[in-house]
Specification:
Blueprint (H helix, E strand, L loop, with lengths): L1 E7 L4 H11 L5 E8 L5 H8 L4 E3 L9 H14 L7 E5 L8 H6 L4 E5 L11 H8 L3 E8 L9 E8 L6 H24 L3 E4 L2 E4 L1
Parallel strand pairs: 1-2, 1-4, 2-3, 4-5
Antiparallel strand pairs: 5-6, 6-7, 8-9
Helix pairs in contact: 1-6
Bound molecules: 5-O-phosphono-beta-D-ribofuranosylamine.
The site of 5-O-phosphono-beta-D-ribofuranosylamine (GRF) has 15 residues, from helix 1, strand 5 and helix 6.
Amino acid sequence: MLNLGILISGRGSNMESILKAIKKKKIPINPAIVISNKPDARGLKIAEKLGVKIEVIESKGFKGSREEYDKKIISVLTKHGVTPKKGLVCLAGFMRIISPEFVKKYKNRIINIHPALLPAFPGLNSQKQALEYGAKVSGCSVHFVDAGMDTGPVIIQAVVKVDEKDTEETLSKRILKKEHMIYPEAVNLFARKKIKISGRRTIIS
Ligand code: GRF
């Protein structure tokens, strides 16, 4: 079985949806470790409650380079069996850009959830961006992480209609509900080796 490492920075609701799906035996993967770059991330408590090991690698005040910080992450992942051969890394609200070295080492083994229909509205505050743009639909995307910002091949997307009365909060809430559905599903597909990458496309069997 593959070993899963989840990287978080805060609330951890996507992490929770993945861990709960694993607990229900819906996903054949071992939830090996949850790592946060913030000691007060709410998600850490949730992970503990669900019986998953946690580690904090504080990024605030870290003196070294991005690559050096990521080396620390990689060593914790490795310690828990989340290796480039036997691991999957999920970014779940992890508010840091990861280094090209990390991406290269775990090639096609790092996935992320983004609260918009990529390639629309990459980066931060995507729900706000969608509203300000006047988009009639938005949604969320699970994608492989490459060296760019939210640019890797898409695995699953879900569409959410934008209501004329929507605020950033109401739209974010509806998108989040879909996030909690598609992220566990993408992890499941990965764990069952059902995703092939062909150029920019993923082929799901
Ligand atoms: C989610 O909206 C996710 O799409 C984005 O950051 C947020 C994290 O929320 N990448 P949570 O920590 O999973 O609750």
